């Protein structure tokens, strides 16, 4: 099993230094999304005291020419603190700081999708949109081979691995447990985890989160997972179809509700929203992976618990549909629905924004409306 060289360094020696007192100083790790729209970058600065609010954190900058975000001749980019969490790696009073990225002219970088999402969410505050996202992922060795799979072959076919228990069914549970506890410590609204259908594939769920918090909490949960995997010497992949053939892909099923949907008779509002989503299928497909639908085309084939990328469908308790209404929601006549189309590597900011645009702002057509005009 190929694990990283760094993971083999003596962790007990490192801990001697991590146990040293740090006085009144605080380490703040600034985290941002790079120009790929999928990768995360980070760097740390020292603060003189523990920040209590996001407003107390200073702006910072970085070299955008090294993160696919600018040219070398004009490379300074601004980091604007947006959300703050406890640091589960350095522990209190140290912080993780999720940032928005602005270009040299103070306009949002191309992959700063939080900026517009925040604007759209502010327009629907009174509707109290809640989201819950189910983040699937695959654990790999540093050689790109799925963790725990035979080096020259495949494990047994899918069937025993989903929510499985035992060394021959659950591959990499240590990573999962460490990630879960680290998220709880950080203050991430993680609400569950389970082994998935393909061996070495897992899922964690974040939510319910209201508005912009959904994207903030999912991105920080992803960052924490990358860091935990780094410590264990393995790699996490959010690729929507990491292994070709008769193996499940990886999605990021998104559960959505509004105040009206959660109240008596809310099923009618849910059905109206699904009708709107049916008329805007291609817009959502483009928004649901960072390559405008190309990544999802490998996953949404109509097989392996997915719908076809070319067709919209909806149904009660149907995991082969674009939109699933949970059976309990159908019985209670209120609640939420699940959009099963977003890919594992989606940007939660644009996924949640797209749902609000179509279901609450009642936009139509294949392009989002520009409300700044």
Automatic annotation (TrEMBL):
List the GO biological process terms: glutamine biosynthetic process
Q: What cofactors does this protein use? A: Mg(2+); Mn(2+)
Q: Which Pfam family would be a valid example here?
A: Gln-synt_N
Q: Is Cytoplasm set as a keyword in this record?
A: yes
Q: Which GO terms describe its molecular function?
A: ATP binding; glutamine synthetase activity; metal ion binding
Q: Residue limits of the GS beta-grasp domain?
A: 24-106
Q: Which UniProt keywords apply?
A: ATP-binding, Cytoplasm, Ligase, Magnesium, Manganese, Metal-binding, Mitochondrion, Nucleotide-binding
Q: Where is the GS catalytic domain?
A: 113-373
What is catalyzed by this enzyme? L-glutamate + NH4(+) + ATP = L-glutamine + ADP + phosphate + H(+)
What subcellular compartments does it reside in?
Cytoplasm; Mitochondrion
> A GO CC term?
mitochondrion
Q: Which SMART domains does the UniProt entry name for this protein?
A: Gln-synt_C
Q: Identify the EC number(s).
A: 6.3.1.2
Mitochondrion is among the record's keywords: yes
Q: Which InterPro entries match?
A: Gln_synt_N, Gln_synt_N_sf, Gln_synth/guanido_kin_cat_dom, Gln_synth_cat_dom, Gln_synth_gly_rich_site, Gln_synth_N_conserv_site, Glutamine_Synthetase
Gene3D superfamilies recorded: Glutamine synthetase, N-terminal domain, Glutamine synthetase/guanido kinase, catalytic domain
Family per record: Belongs to the glutamine synthetase family.
Name of the molecule in the record: Glutamine synthetase
Q: Which species is the source of this protein?
A: Eleginops maclovinus
């Amino acid at each position: 099993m190929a694990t990283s060289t760094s993971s083999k360094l003596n962790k007990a020696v490192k801990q001697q230094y991590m146990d040293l007192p740090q006085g009144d100083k605080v380490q703040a790790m600034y985290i941002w999304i790079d120009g790929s729209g999928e990768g995360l970058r980070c760097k740390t600065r020292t603060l003189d005291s523990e920040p209590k609010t996001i407003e107390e954190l200073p702006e910072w900058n970085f070299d955008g020419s090294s993160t696919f975000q600018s040219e070398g001749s004009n490379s300074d980019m601004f980091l604007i603190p947006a959300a703050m969490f406890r640091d589960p790696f350095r522990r209190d009073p140290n912080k993780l700081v999720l940032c928005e990225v602005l270009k040299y002219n103070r306009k949002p970088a191309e992959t700063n999708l939080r900026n517009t999402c925040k604007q759209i969410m502010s327009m629907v505050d009174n509707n109290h949109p809640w989201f819950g996202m189910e983040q699937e992922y695959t654990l790999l060795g540093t050689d790109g081979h799925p963790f725990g799979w035979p080096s020259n072959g495949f494990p047994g076919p899918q069937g025993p691995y989903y929510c499985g228990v035992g060394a021959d069914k659950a591959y990499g549970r240590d990573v999962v447990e460490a990630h879960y506890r680290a998220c709880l410590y950080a203050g991430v609204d993680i609400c569950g985890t389970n082994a998935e259908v393909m061996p070495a594939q897992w899922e964690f769920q974040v939510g319910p989160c209201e508005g912009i918090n959904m994207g903030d909490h999912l991105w920080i949960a992803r960052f924490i997972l990358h860091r935990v995997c780094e410590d264990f010497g393995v790699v996490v992949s959010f690729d929507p179809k990491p292994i070709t053939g008769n193996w499940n892909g990886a999605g990021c099923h998104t559960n959505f509700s509004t105040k009206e949907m959660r109240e008596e008779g809310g099923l009618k509002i849910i059905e109206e929203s699904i009708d709107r989503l049916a008329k805007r299928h291609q817009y959502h497909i483009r928004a649901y992976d960072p390559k405008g639908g190309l990544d999802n085309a490998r996953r949404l084939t109509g097989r392996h618990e997915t719908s076809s990328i070319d067709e919209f469908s909806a149904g009660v308790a149907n995991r082969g549909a674009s939109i699933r209404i949970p059976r309990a929601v159908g019985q209670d006549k209120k609640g939420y629905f699940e959009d099963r189309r977003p890919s594992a590597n989606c940007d939660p900011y644009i996924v949640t924004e797209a749902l609000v645009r179509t279901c609450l702002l009642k936009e139509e057509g294949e392009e989002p409306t520009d409300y700044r005009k």
